[in-house]
Fold these 4 entries.
Entry 1:
Amino acid sequence: MSKVLMKGNEAIAEAAIQAGCRYFFGYPITPQNEIPAYMAKRLPMVGGCFLQAESEVAAINMVYGAAGAGARVMTSSSSPGISLKQEGISYIAGAELPCLIVNIVRGGPGLGGIQPAQSDYFQAVKGGGHGDYHLIVLAPSTIQEMVDLVQEGFDIADQYRNPVMILGDGMLGQMMEPVEFKERKPRQLPPKDWATTGWKGDRPRAVINSLFIDPQVLEEHVQRIYKKYEAIKANETKVECYNCEDAEIIVSAYGTTARIVRSVIELAAKEGIKVGLIRPITLWPFPADTFSSWVERDHVKAFLTVEMSMGQMVEDVTLSVGGRKPSYFYGRTGGMVPNPFDILDEIKKIRGGNR
Amino acid sequence: MDQERLILFTGHFGSGKTEIAVNYAIKSAQSGQKTILVDLDIVNPFFRSTEVKDKLEECGIKVISPNFAVTTVDIPSLPAEIYSVFADKSSKVIFDVGGDETGARALGQYFPYFRQEHYRMYYVINIRRPLSSTAEDIISMMQEVEQKSRLKVTHLINNTNLSYETEIHDIIEGQAIIEQVSKSVNIPIEWTAGVSELLDRLPENIGCKLFPIEIYMKPPWQQLPQGKPFRAQN
């Protein structure tokens, strides 16, 4: 198929449809409105169902129901809306249901603003909702990668019976880039024999549940889910290392910020400063081993994490670096996007021992 | 430049209206014409003409933006100041209209003024955008835009592109499909738009005037001046 020029939000929606998603439940919020708008136009054309719910809380519970019935289903929102969805997300994780949740992050806290931000990292990777659980969190940094990760995300969700989150930001949602919808090889997925599709007496009753009254049973349930998380960590961790060979400073960034850091690497090279980039593609599982593998290298003097937040992923970077090298942070927040020159200045300060 | 005083840029969502409107305004101002650009986009939260307000004002162009544009308010409301451009007839006025029929809706309220004066309404087309790759799809959207704006498209613009991956065959394929549109609705293609490096390589027989543009709507990692965060200066 030839390339088309798409906004990030539109690309997410089209990729989901091409991955076989036929159900979308959501509630509008900027800067992700092109996703529901596109779904509203396109889903009826392919025999699917778009429904604008009365609230985010209703939408996530519709996702819970559709996922329980074995459907490929998604919802999308932006920061405040995702906060509203947290109870349902915890139920979905507890009931081990596959679905795709898109968060096109905007500035917070509270209603915040509509400009791009990355300040929902903690919420996405450290829980957000209550209880012991994890989302698998994918962080694209180009529109093409958004397409690829949405399609992959549905498969990962089905393979592990676990909700997957696409963590984008307003910039990625709104910008336009050429994309291609490639023929892809779907994973070999287990049958959804757990789905509540109607009991006709020919198999044991399927029950979708996240309530376990007996503490021992609940503990066993949670421990079993955590074994599954170990498999996800082993099989699904994705990271990109760029220009790290010989790098003096390794910058870590994801999504839009990683694009900016690539410009910084060019600017730094012009001044003879060797800068590398570690770009986590999965934020959970976090590519801790990749950091460990670079940290012992002599040429690496320090790590710098750049985010559109007051410093969230930097905690995982610092943990992975484990005190073996200094770990610094630079961020802008509230919808402000870091300028490549300002990041370069930070790098120079670190080199000069001024931080 | 065009004779009409009121120039409108409409089109499918993401067809490149803003980029063309900004370039048109700058060309107009450079020709010595008093120029006003009205950012009438009520659809896009960012990548709007208001973001290049500084550059436009440097060229002597007055920019009228929706209240709160590029701030944190979800729905930009339109300022009363817009009515002044119909009263003071000394300036050329360029309207950058939001995409699809949703964006065109913002024009409806100014209908009485457009009825009193000649206007030129461009419809910008990029066949590499979703739901606009065939003549039928393009015509159906264009008719919705006309309905909602209560105005008639007078000229078409071929702005077929794949951003930084555009090849001349994209533009040529766009031209062929837009020629079908043009024949079918009897509206002329006024321009083929694109960056000059590409337009220079087009065959002579492309059949309409060329409109070379410079790209002003850029993501923040491309050529930001030192010390400036990505944000419009209001």
Entry 2:
Amino acid sequence: MTISVYVPAALSLLLAAISRIVVVRTAPTRAAAFVVAAMLCAAAATWGLVLLSATLLGATSLVADEALERGVQLQDPVPKLIGVTAVLLLILGAARVARVLRARRATTRELQAVCSSCGNGELAVVALDAPHAFAVPGHPGRILVTRGLLSVLDGDERRVVLAHERAHLRSRHHWLRAATEICAAVNPLLIPVREAVAFLVERSADEHAAAVTGSRELVARALTKAALASPAAGRVPLWPAALRFAGCAVSARVAALHSAPPRPEPLVPSGVLALGVATTIAAVQATIAFYQLIYWLWPT
Amino acid sequence: MADRATRDHTARGARRAAGELEAEVLAALWAADGPLTAAHVRRAVGGGLAYNTVQTILVRLYDKGLIGRVADGRRHEYFPVKGAEELAAEQMQALLSRGRNRQAVLQRFATSLSVEDARLLRAMLRRRP
């Protein structure tokens, strides 16, 4: 088997590294490019694992006997250990995807249950002091906030929260996030891409709120107040590495709002998409190489 | 520059859709410590709304059963109707105390901060009041 079967993993790492570097400078509307690239990388990497797993079939009596009968010299393209590892990785990936899907469905359902306990308007308010705001997807989508958040903000700042959450609902950001969560579950090398997309959809909603309220300063202020009122402020996170991005996200968003408005630059999304296309090509090449190993199995 | 920003702001405020205004008025009533008169609501919502607009929205919210009102002399004072308040709070508490997998799904407006980020943000807030 050629080296192409390992290329998707290498390109996933590259995509992850690029996501980390460019995310703060990327125009937030370009999140979709990262989602598409992540999906292509995840699909190619999974297909590569399937091919590597399939090489184990050469050891089964089914294939071995057939080869003996036809006088074909069987090749052993990859060490058995790699084949077995590929099988294990596939099983682990499937388990992680199932867990992500379950968590998403359960959380959405619970959020919808809280909303329906709070009347049937667009806005659902929970009488809790901890400041929280969520966009709850559904038909129709709703905005769930706590009284704690509303009471630390003034009227203009509350409008920012509403506009921000409406932007999530209107642009269906939960689909972008779900897609990258599944990609990262399939292929953990893509976790930084998932974080980048999570950050970009927040930035996108921030810029939308700025356009609606007419002031980026105002959005920055609302965000700062909400973050500082959070009860967890100052607590050292249990998983520093995992939470670092989430923790710095607010200050990065505030900093972005204080600097010049983002300009759409075509270079980053096209570069990211090119990576996705490259992994797809590698997957096709690996498939061809695999076919060349087994083509004799087909009756001529 | 500031003038223009303010004017834009007001112009945008006037164009806000009725549905969006309902959410803003409701949010203002929830944020308040006690019942508010229409005039107080108007001030709390901000953004230069007309008094009549506020009055219309309040009536609409009242008709929907989302807010209640008490008579205070000739005026009405409005307050948010707290439906299944305790149930909602319990459900929400349960939701927020779930494990890391479930937390990751929540799309938060603002996440918790590290000590350093909190200091950074306070500094920014001070610099730009």
Entry 3:
Amino acid sequence: MSETPKHTPLYDLHVKLGGRMVPFAGYAMPVQYPAGILKEHAHTREAAGFFDVSHMGQAFLDGMDGDVAAAFETLAPGDVAGLAPGRQRYSVLLNDNGGIMDDLMVARAAPALGQNRLFLVVNASMKDADFTHIETKLRGRATLARLDDRALFALQGPKAVTVLARHATGVEALAFMETGVFDIAGVRCFISRSGYTGEDGFEISVPAAAAHQLAEKLLAEPEVAPIGLGARDSLRLEAGLCLYGHDIDAGTSPIEAGLAWVIAKRRRQAGDFPGAGRILKELAEGPARRRVGILPEGRAPVREGAEILNEKGETVGVVTSGGFGPTVNGPIAMGYVVSAFAAVGTPVQLMLRGKAVAGSIAALPFTPHRYVK
Amino acid sequence: MSEKIYYTKEHEWVRVEGNIATIGITDFAQSQLGDVVFVELPEAGRDLKAGEAAAVVESVKAASEVFAPVSGKVTQANEALVDSFSLINEAPESDGWFFKLELANTGELGGLMDRAAYDDFLKEHA
């Protein structure tokens, strides 16, 4: 993509804050601010980090005759019909081979937002493809309205709730994966208690026109610091969360990815989702390969693309995300290995610049999740 | 003792005292890398040719190679870095040096930049 990167509504604010802007998924985004990735990462784990995630795709999906959730379930394996108003789930769009077209958040809109409506948040890199897919497949049953006039923030960390409750009265009552409509400084915001760091926190959808002003209000709080994409990546990796296009893609099934929990019991029994043949077979017999955590020994980070060998030196897998975990204080990685080598504790070797580095299969997440119950 | 500092287009510096060159990365290089979390240094005794990959420096985001700006035999690596990678961020052009080598061909220094030329290079390319 050689096109000029697009700007989110917070572009000028990032530049003012000293953000180093890099192209990401067609947008100019801050990879870090002057504090640096290590401090930004630690700040999010200890206090509250503010992230601009306005590049992600937001949309309403409205049902025409029947329940919009039933329509959406033809594209994804979750129990969407069973979502109470305001409740949110992590889900995946599946292709006919049971591969993951994208991972996303789906909420049944809170009553204040409308009846028979879902609120979707999808990956920036996939939003055009996702929205086209959803519109095409659900033509006649549901209509999709892109919310390109809205920005999206994430406020993450143990102090996020204290900070946000000063501005959004009652937001502390939201449960994990619950959404609601709240006013911040008189501006109507859609807020969900969710995130991509393993910490308690919120995602806040705001009108683009008010984004800069609302962001400055949150950033003015003493607990809050701006966090770039660099720390967003190290935080999610420690939390064992998948990055689309790296840890999961159109060839990966949810079972291989360790995401069997996104396939609701009712859906397994009915087998009524795309790629059900492959997925139900993998559920019954086990997949040929599995996503695992990997702890390299020593200090050298092992990155995406590194081959994983067994003790005999045979290739048994590949690293799909890897780097340095600031909270772990050492190298961490995720990847896929042949299922026989997926048990926690299995010794492996990792190819790094032509040399084998010892490591072992590790449990995910590397850093315990601290979501509110 | 006379001492002279040279710079490369790869954002390394070379401080020459007598026949010994001390090599590190510039403040600009460390600012581009971000927080350093790992470094791999060449062993003493290794013969390096100019342009050869000599060290690896890794930030949270990415791995970068450090190339030998001039040819020579490595006399010493900066062991202080192994316990304190942050020296590369905090003092890149002093305590955060990478390695020293015995110059094989002082003529190679003629192809490097002085500070003024490097500053001009930064203005054009950074």
Entry 4:
Amino acid sequence: MLKTMMQLAKMQFNQYNIYKSNFYLFTLNRIVEVIVYIFVWQAIYSQTGNAGGFTLSQMVTYYILAIAFSSIATWGINETMAHSIRTGQINKELLNPLTYFQYYFGMNLGELAFAVVIGIATFIICAIFWELALPVSFLNFILCIFIIILGIPITFFIQMIVGTIGFYTNSIWGMQIFRKAVIQIFSGIVAPISLFPLWFQELSKFLPFKELIYTPINIWLGQVDYSEILFVIIKQIIWGAVLYIIAKKFFNHAIKNITTNGG
Amino acid sequence: MAIIEVKNLVKTYKIIEKEEGLIGYFKNLVKPKYKEFTAVNNVNFSIEKGELVGYIGENGAGKSTTIKMLTGLLTPTSGNVIVNGIIPNQKRIENNKNIGAVFGQKTQLWWDLPVIESFRLIKKMYKIPENEYRKNLKKFTELLDLEELLEKQVKNLSLGQKMRCEIAATFLHDPKIVYLDEPTIGLDVFVKEKIRKFIKDINREKKTTVILTTHDLKDIEDVCDRIILLDKGQIIYDGEKQKFKDTYGRYVIAELIVNNIKDNIILNNAEILEQNDNKLKIKFSHDETTIVKIMDEISKFCNIEDIHMKEAELEDILKEIYKGVHTNVKNNDATSKNAI
């Protein structure tokens, strides 16, 4: 099973990597994003001097990390899945000797591996041009990575839910934009959560998205208590389980529909 | 114990009946009207291990629906399907381990990657032991001439090359049963021949059960021993291919080149299919007359220059059945089934 998933991940990764320009373009894209955000915040800081409890150098670090992590939070296989449903390729995939979720999780890992490569490249290039705050301790660094890894099943199951909508509509493009927008706002890619209104901060405490970007970066910067990290870990595991059940139920329902009505 | 057992299989689809116009559209939204359509109607058959079965019928006869139920992709409306001791739509993953399938143009090969990568994935998915994998790969490479294709990206292959790889991928894990739905569609004669030979070779060596649906009856003629003929969701013939031909194809078609036609040609015991200036196409049965008698008759009307005869092929017989010439097929089948 693990070997199969590694092979699937490798293949999905290579599928991106065959077009070398993919790597350069995505990385360039990320760096441009970083530059834009940093210029905007430099302008704001020159007016106010403080925002959301971050110093300017912390804010620069925040955006470089946020953009580096952003592909991991927003990429996935829902477009591939919707395409497979639309073209009937799904019939072939349902005849594999492993479940649809396992098959797509393998591919999702490959996709994320490519996101990690781009993230690291973005990080290294940015580190050359700007001074970055290093993780406050090695433990914090490990916890930061761990929280990001806990987010992988969560984004995967959301991807599967959005992909499953492809059974009912011809195009999931709109849903995909919506999913991306929700993650971008609630994870803190657009701006640190601490800058948002209080109700928004309260809400995001219970949603699983903050932990894709905002929380790991704050752990990196040493601004989260260990007791809170424990709460976050438990929260993510619960969300993972809930989303798994929803995704599985939804998918099985959709599949049942095509197996009784013939797609 | 049969490897595939199908009993009283029925599949009914519900289709929304579309009404014309804008009002009809809104009516449909609020309260859709359903129409029932029976794609497979009380189908029974059982297939033994190692059989090569041609599953044939016109477009929309219910072939693909049956195959989908056999693979577990569709749930039967009623009736039973047991494949290798398993009910496929209840234990799909379990069933998938024993089967291989080719569905027309849909591929299991990864578009942007070299063919061999997809083979490696199959090796890992089905947990094929290393030596088994090597042995099969070597053999398939020889039989299907894949040597130069394995390292190529799938998108750079021609249709024929792709299908050869696809067939190899399907048999790689030594499946007990293989469903081939239109495996030779759009291919040239050489590739078709290669694929047919491959299927026969593997069947002989590994006792793989093969169920083949195709519109190219040469495939059936070449590969299958048994045919199941489907019409409007019902089986109208199930049995040996040779017997089928003997029963419904006991006639000969002769083409004659003639000149000096004097009169309207009228023949006893033979049917004129085509007639123009100097060509005559006739059909007759060995039971009723002989070629010598017919030539005698024809020579009264004209001079015969040349004659060319051919036995009825599967294709000719099927055309007649679809046209409704052999209306007795259904009844015959019913009686033969009772006899069993």
